[in-house]
Amino acid sequence: MTRLHVLLFSFLLTACGARDSNREPLTEVTADGPISEKEVYAMLAENPEAGAEQLKKLAQQYRSQNDWQKAGTTYLNLATVYTDRLQQQDSALVMADRSIEICRYMKDTTQEANVLKYKGLLLGRVGRLKEAETAIAEAIALFEAVDFKNGVVISHFNLARVYFLNERYEASSELLQNCTNYWRAKGKKDRIFTDNLFGIELYCRMGEFDKASAMIAENAQLKDSIRMNDWLENELKRVVHLSDSLQNLVEL
Fold this sequence. Notes:
Elements: H1 2-18, H2 37-46, H3 48-64, H4 68-85, H5 89-106, H6 109-125, H7 129-145, H8 149-165, H9 169-186, H10 189-205, H11 209-222, H12 230-251
Helix pairs in contact: 1-7, 2-3, 3-4, 4-5, 5-6, 6-7, 6-8, 7-8, 8-9, 9-10, 10-11, 10-12, 11-12
């Protein structure tokens, strides 16, 4: 955690000079014609690549209407499409930066922090560890400035995932334990479930199968007390299968 504090101090010293929040973000563009948000998201479900192009036009439409809040949210949605559906991390980072620029123009520091913690995760996925740490440190500083503890903890969780992706398992484990302890104190069963999904994979990679098994057992109990969706169901199946497979390999 000492390293994070150093990064936070560095960010606070340089943040004022890094922004020109009064400058209108990007250049104003006009979409070809009215675009329906509902139709764009329906297209994304069927054809992510074509849907992403339409989502860009929707963001441009909001910009031309000076609806900066919707434009910023749409760019963030584009970032998730590029990373989760199209596996185009560089494009995802571009869209995240556009969303951040709009947040700064609107002086919406909480949403800026939300996007920064996500950008940090994206940077971690492409191995840009130092930049990932800096982006998440910036998010933490902004959340702490408005005393939003949940945002700080979720940022630490993203940093734990970044460390995992870069094989810094001990650092990842320390952060994960702190996050889960926080949610336990809050009684947030859905957050504990999500933390455990990540923890199962982390501890399997570390060869600590007892910890992974304990998390699998806990999630089996939590499952009936939280709102499940397809992603959670599939992710639980994936990490349980991973745990079984790795343990079988170790026993051979």
